[in-house]
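Continuing the batch. This is chain 6 of the set; chains 1 through 5 are on the previous pages. Same settings as before, nothing changed between runs. Recording input and output for traceability.
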Amino acid sequence: MLPVERVIAENGLHICADGVRIDVRLPWYRSLPLSTIEIEALSIGGTPIDLTSVRFELEGKSWDLHQLAEQTDTFWFVLDQAQLLVPGQTLEPGSEYEVAVTIALYPPYIPGMRRSNSQKLTLKALEGKVQ
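Output for chain 6:
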């Protein structure tokens, strides 16, 4: 899989005190403002997650998904990992879960373009802090 097709980071499922975090990558070749990124779908273990409760975290900052559209001055750099926080989600440590994430991009320098990337991986639920 090419880096611009990868959505979920390897070893990207973490059990934390506030729920579950999934490490995600920017599936694009250039950095983009958060305002051009949309998390379209998320499921864990085959169960769709209600996106209204999910938060997007990047470099110590956190937003509800609907707030991403307002973040025109905050960039997601291609080498950085972000996290999707799913509060209240409980998983069994060490167990494997199928994780599916779909991210849509609207690059501002290509008017009218929309690119949607989906990825599904089976990941082991790791206890502890996100790397």
